[in-house]
Input
Amino acid sequence: MVGGALTVIISHADSPKDSAPQFPFSLHACDLSLSLKQGHYFAGAWCSVLAFDTVIVISTYLRAVSVRNVWPSHLFQVAVRDSIIYYVVLVGLVLSNILTFLVADPLIKGLTSTMINTLSSGLIARLMLTA
Output
């Protein structure tokens, strides 16, 4: 999370302010750079992912509170703790990804997307196996 934030800050500090990609080298492979407009679209998509995760965590918490008398107290505490940890880690990662889409250089926009998808899968698998 800190690495993603530092990448955004460093790339934004010395980047040109226009939206056209300016590269000091020629690209002879696939050009995966994103324009400013494309970055805004992808940031919007990741905002919806963040909203969905927020709804899931709130639903999990409300469900856990409603059945806390049925579950043993330790199981209730583990479910609430794990869902909050999952949410906090994922919010940090998704916010760093949104920032890269909005303010980073065209070549590194969305650089953390693969890492976020992988960590999200691992975190949700752990959350489901514990509860």
Q: What stands out?
A: Residues 41 and 91 are 19 Å apart (CA to CA). The longest helix spans residues 36-66. Confidence is low (pLDDT under 50) at residues 4-8. The radius of gyration is 19 Å.
